[in-house]
Amino acid sequence: MENRKLAFMSIIFLLTLSMMLIAGCSKDNAKPVSSESGEAEIKSMSGKELVKQNSATEKDQVLIIDVRSEEEYNAGHIPHAINIFIDEMEGRFDEIEDYKDKPIILYCNTGNRSRKAAEILASNGFKDVTNAQGVKEFEYDLVHYKDVRGAAFQKIIDEDKDIILVDVRPEKQVKEEGMMEGAINVPFDAVEENLVKLPKDKTIALYCNTGTKSSEAAKQLESLGYENVVNAIEGVKEYAFTLVK
Question: What is the pLDDT of residue 32?
Fold first, then answer.
């Protein structure tokens, strides 16, 4: 009887030990990715959640990055998303350095490349990184015009002297605050009435206060057959563009 009792207790002990080891392994597998400035847990996000985050009222709180190739990005990307190819990520940290402590959302086709890109960011000190559902797994409303941050927008208009630079803010605001040098004013709600000023064989570069109205204008131009449109996701209220009257 005593031997049976000892055998039973031994079995209970081994089962308990096994469960503790399994729990420990699971915990190790789920631990946050280590980074230079601490530990950053890579979060996940559904397509539905990303669409909500990308709404006009919430989009300015995050930076969305499409980590696919330029060709894939141009074929259709999520609105307000900039393009940084995963193979170029480590060489372009300077473009997103100001988001080291702010939310960054990454996506690709299926979540695999964006997961790897998220690990790269987390291991280099980026503290709030999320991997979102890919464009092959969720039916996003994709666009084809190019979305860029303020500095990249400034570089584009500096280098392309043949570009059509368009301020889509209301006329009253433009008169009070001025526009970027060389820009024309086409209010976002009067695009179709001003198409004569926007030749299709030129690159059309749009900006506004925060990138919301300019993205609406970009979508409208895209629907009208314009193929070379660039939108500044950071407008004059978010980036230090020089305005002149």
Answer: 42
C-alpha distances (whole Å) from 26 to each of 17, 23, 29, 96 are 14, 5, 5, 33
Domains and CATH numbers, the chain: 35-132 (3.40.250.10), 146-244 (3.40.250.10)
Rounded to 10 degrees, the C-alpha dihedral 123/150/107/38 comes to 20
Distance from the Cα of residue 203 to its chain's centroid: 23
Distance, in Å, from the CA atom of 182 to the CA atom of 166, rounded to the nearest integer, reads 9
The pLDDT of residue 111: 97
pTM over 0.85: no
* DSSP E strand stretches across the chain: 33-35, 38-40, 43-45, 63-66, 81-83, 104-107, 129-132, 146-148, 164-167, 179-180, 184-185, 204-207, 229-232, 243-244
The Cα–Cα gap between 79 and 77 comes to: 6
Please say if the pLDDT value at position 15 is more than 60. no
Q: How far apart are the C-alpha atoms of 184 and 186, rounded to whole Å?
A: 6
The pLDDT assigned to 58 comes to 83
Please report, rounded to a whole number, the percentage of residues in the chain having pLDDT higher than 70: 84
Residue 230, helix vs strand vs coil = strand
- List the structure tokens of 27: 């915990």
Specify the DSSP class assigned to residue 143: B
- Is the pLDDT confidence value at 126 over 70? yes
Report whether pLDDT(215) > 70: yes
Classify 78 as helix, strand or coil: coil
